C-alpha cells in the first residue's frame, strides 16, 4: 500500500486521526504524511515546533515506518486532497467534530468537502469515538444503486488487515420485486468476492427502509461496529427513497469512523464479484 495522508489541525479529532493512521500504516508498512493547512498570515515557526514535538511523542509507536509532515496554505479540503493526489496515497484520514460545530478546527468544518473532492478513500474519525477496541466489525450497506458494490474492495482490504468481520446489510428501500432482486443479486456478487478473498462476513437484510442512513446507523450501533463503509454519492433515483445527501448525513450523524469511497466507472452485472 502507498502512503497514508492524515489531516492535522491540533484539535482532539485530528489527534485521534493521527493515532488511527499510525495503526493502519504500521499494518500496511506504509509511511505517513501529516498535513497541516495554515491560514494566510499564520506564522509557520510555532506550527513546526508543535508538530515536531507531537511527532516525537508518538515516534515510539512507529514500527519501521516514517511519519513526515508538510505545511500547506489555502483551503483545507483542497490542500488535503491535492497532497493525497501528489503522494498517490492509498488513504486519507481526517478528524472531525461532528454535527454540533461547537469546535473551531478547520478540518471539522471541511470534512464533507474533503470527502467529496478526494481522489482516494477517506476515513472520517469523530473525536468522541472509543478507540480502546479493535477494529472487529465493518458494516457495508448494499442498496440498489449502481455503484453500491464498489465499496467492498476497500472494506475487504481493511477486514484482511485487521482480521475483521464484514457485516453485509441488504437495504430494501422498496417493496417492488425488481428492486428487491437487484439488492439480492448485488449481495450475492459481494458475497462471492468475500469468499474469494477469504474474508469473514455475515449477511443481514433490512426491510421497509425509508432512510438508508438511519437504517445503517441503527444496525451499526446494534452490533457495536467499528467502521461503516459508504460511497461518496448514491444513485439519485426515486426508488431509493434517500432523504437528503446520504454521505453527508452519515458523516454528520455517525459516531463510528466512516470509510468513504468515491465512485469510479459504473460496474456492470458482469463485475468480478
Q: What Rg, in angstroms, do the CA atoms define? A: 19 Å
The CATH architecture of the largest domain would be 3-Layer(aba) Sandwich
Largest sheet: 10 strands, mixed
Q: What's the pLDDT, averaged over the residues?
A: 85
Termini separation comes to: 22 Å
Structural class: alpha/beta
Number of domains: 2
Output the CATH topology of the largest domain.
Rossmann fold
Determine the CATH superfamily of the largest domain: HUPs
Largest beta sheet: strand ordering:
3-2-1-4-5-10-9-6-7-8
Please characterize this protein's 3D structure:
The chain has eight helices and ten strands. It is an alpha/beta fold. Strands 3-2-1-4-5-10-9-6-7-8 form a ten-stranded mixed β-sheet, sandwiched between helices. Strand 7, helix 6 and strand 8 form a beta-alpha-beta unit. The longest helix is centred in the last third of the chain and has 21 residues.
